[in-house]
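Chain A, query sequence.
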Amino acid sequence: MEGKVAIVTGADGGLGKSVTQALLDSGVTVVGTSRKIQTAEFQHSSFLGIPADISNKEAAEQLVDQVLSRFGRLDVLVHTVGGFAGGQAVVDTDDDTFQRMMDVNLKPLLHILRAAIPPLRQSGAGCVIAVGSRAAIEPGPRVGAYSASKAAMLSVMKTVAIENRDAGLRANVVLPGTIDTPANRQSNPDADFSKWVRPDAIASLIMWLAGDAGREINGAAIPIYGSES
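Chain A, predicted structure.
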């Protein structure tokens, strides 16, 4: 991994921090992005923070252009951005909630993929890893809009894997259960946190997929549920 250049979306989030640090520890130059991120977020000479709202197509394009202008290449894209809405059955969920989930969980992925795929193809061994959700393949009650958006995200990534394998570009998705982040703990204070997935465990899986050990994995949807039933 040493010498490679990666973009991590949501790099200052509960999971993004673990992923970014793991990449930096492996010798990767990391460009981390979120709406308000700063380079000082990580005390590492190989980290650069570039604020960007990738729900906007032009912002995603400008982000990738800046990376290419600064480093001349892009080898890895890790997409950790997403959002959640739940609590209602499908019959009671309004159109705005369904649209919001698509806007949060699908549109940013589409924008960053469209901008990043050309340079990733040029690298000859590019890699895209998106963080999806268990709900993409195991929908539960009262999370229909969220599950649908994550299923759409998974479908797009599998299509990208097929369309770009000729260039050696791999695209895979990890499907965590509930992630043990401060935000999730605050939202579910009575839960058994020990059953949730640790961010560093997800980061380790992402590193395996991005590295030489995962070079033959493409188009996969890999569950990582912790000890939740």
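Helices lie at 16-25, 57-71, 95-105, 107-122, 144-164, 182-187, 199-210. The longest strand covers residues 170-176.
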